[in-house]
């Protein structure tokens, strides 16, 4: 059995968009580039040909990776979730117990995480510490910079 990969609809759409771009734009362009490079004769010393073949290899690998993720995607709409416990799709507001700095993160699939936009991978140490907890709970997370303690101020699904 293949493991399902949880993701939001937005993350799923980004995977589909990238796959479409690779198949309809990048793949045909690289095939043309390889054909042009072949016309230039000796392939052993043709840098354009070797670069194009490398790019083609990357594209085909990425297409396979995206098709695999899309086939295993379990699209979850956080708006359909509810409850008081932290789980996939929850937007969690935390306060750093040392600095009183507040931050909010939405727990998303690992391939759509973007910490600068508040999207925290469900597989990250912080997310793993938060799972199952509720408002008022404290969590401690060991980070590369040392141990951090947070209190959960709010758990919402939007």
Automatic annotation (TrEMBL):
Family designation: Belongs to the GreA/GreB family.
Lineage, top ranks: Bacteria, Pseudomonadati, Pseudomonadota, Alphaproteobacteria, Rhodospirillales
Keywords in alphabetical order: DNA-binding, Elongation factor, Protein biosynthesis, Transcription, Transcription regulation
Lineage: superkingdom: Bacteria
NCBIfam families noted in UniProt: greA, PRK00226.1-2, PRK00226.1-4, PRK00226.1-5
Transmembrane segments: none
Protein name: Transcription elongation factor GreA
InterPro entries per record: GreA/GreB_C_sf, TF_GreA/GreB_CS, Tscrpt_elong_fac_GreA, Tscrpt_elong_fac_GreA/B, Tscrpt_elong_fac_GreA/B_C, Tscrpt_elong_fac_GreA/B_fam, Tscrpt_elong_fac_GreA/B_N, Tscrpt_elong_fac_GreA/B_N_sf
Gene3D superfamilies recorded: Transcription elongation factor, GreA/GreB, C-terminal domain, Transcription elongation factor, GreA/GreB, N-terminal domain
GO molecular function ontology, one term from the record: translation elongation factor activity
One GO term (biological process): regulation of DNA-templated transcription elongation
SUPFAM superfamilies xref list: FKBP-like, GreA transcript cleavage protein, N-terminal domain
Organism: Roseiterribacter gracilis
Domain Transcription elongation factor GreA/GreB N-terminal: 5-75
Residue ranges annotated for the Transcription elongation factor GreA/GreB C-terminal domain, each copy included: 84-156
Function: Necessary for efficient RNA polymerase transcription elongation past template-encoded arresting sites. The arresting sites in DNA have the property of trapping a certain fraction of elongating RNA polymerases that pass through, resulting in locked ternary complexes. Cleavage of the nascent transcript by cleavage factors such as GreA or GreB allows the resumption of elongation from the new 3'terminus. GreA releases sequences of 2 to 3 nucleotides.
Gene assigned in the entry: greA
């Amino acid at each position: 059995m293949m493991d399902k990969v949880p993701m939001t609809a937005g993350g799923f759409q980004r995977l589909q968009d990238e796959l479409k771009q690779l198949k309809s734009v990048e793949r045909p362009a690289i095939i043309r580039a390889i054909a042009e490079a072949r016309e230039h004769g000796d392939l052993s010393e043709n840098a354009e040909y070797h670069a194009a073949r490398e790019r083609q290899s990357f594209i085909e690998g990425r297409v396979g990776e995206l098709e695999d993720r899309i086939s295993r995607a379990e699209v979850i709409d956080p708006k359909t979730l509810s409850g008081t416990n932290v789980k996939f799709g929850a937007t969690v507001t935390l306060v750093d117990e040392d600095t009183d700095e507040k931050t909010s993160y939405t727990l998303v699939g690992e391939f759509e995480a973007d910490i600068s936009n508040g999207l925290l991978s469900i597989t990250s140490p912080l997310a793993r510490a938060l799972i199952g907890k509720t408002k008022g709970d404290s969590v401690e997370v060991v980070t590369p910079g040392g141990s951090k303690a947070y209190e959960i101020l709010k758990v919402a699904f939007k």
